[in-house]
Amino acid sequence: MRAGTAMLAAILVSAALVCGCGGSGGGGSTPPTQNQTAPPSVTTFTNAALQNGAVMAALGFSTPGSVIHYTLDGSAPTASSQIYDAPFLVASNLTVKAIAIAPGDTASTVTSQSFTPAIASGALVWSEDFNNATASNALPNSAFWTYDTGTNCCGNNELETYCAAGASAAPCDPANPNAYADTAGILHIVARKPTAAAVYTSARLKSQGLFSFQYGRIEARMKLPEGQGMWPAFWLLGDNITAISWPACGELDVMEHINGSNPQNEGFDWVAGSIHGTNLNGTAQFHPAGFSAADWHTYGMIWTKGQIQFYVDAPANVYATYTPSTQAGIWPFDDGPQFIILNLAVGGDWPGPPDATTIFPSEVLVDYVHVYAN
Q: Where do the CATH 2.60.120.200 domains begin and end in the chain?
């Protein structure tokens, strides 16, 4: 793919902020010294999705208009370091270092905070199980998910209009939502054809601004549609996409699938795992004998420093491995956290449009999305 609350219980761990201000010179010909931007704060919080001692970390500023640059490897942050855009998972021993820079001011002093959660390798640290304790279908949890919306919102010449939860402007219909959790705790992402004309609706859920992580193992248990023009995906984009755009932010496609088993796909069914960055592209297909994407499968990625691996059904079943030394282009996957996307596109450059054989409504089912510590 290409880019385009239940209340959180907060445990504040922030330091007092002091703006260091320079004085003016003693003579009329001496220009005033710039003010120094106030240093960032570090705030941690927990919520029901976090497990085994993991926390979320948020960075804040007190100088209006300032931008926070940060690192997670203990190195000194600079104006070219990752720009802070969203809370991120802390599930390993790391040191956050951050500076704030405001227009007309000098950079702040460095804020530094170390975390030593000592979480066991393989421990579950974030869990979205789409739990629904009500007696009817429910909208996805707004503490974890927001939405991309609109017609061809995100490139690829897709045909669907993406609808947010509860959207009522045509062709979206709140009585027939494109994303909901059923009473068994299964997320449905539904592509619909609400009129006889070539009008389609669907949903694209994302955790942007709410949850992101760097390094670990992520997987989702999913059941996919098989039909011409269907394009489901489970993928990630860099938090810094708003600052440096795509593809520089990096894209990790844990699972993509188009159309199903048909002659266009050489008569066998498959899924693909891909990585994308500036002048960097790598894609591998998974298609063992007898594989059907219409069955339940677990699609996963193991993310460590300098390496991305994709697997199906078990972490030992790795079918693709990527490193900076095996890929041309700029490797962006050690630069900072990424957020999660779950979507079902209709049509687009890759699958082509639906045809008379395509069934509507058609849906992706998601049992869970889990993140584990490395």
A: 124-372
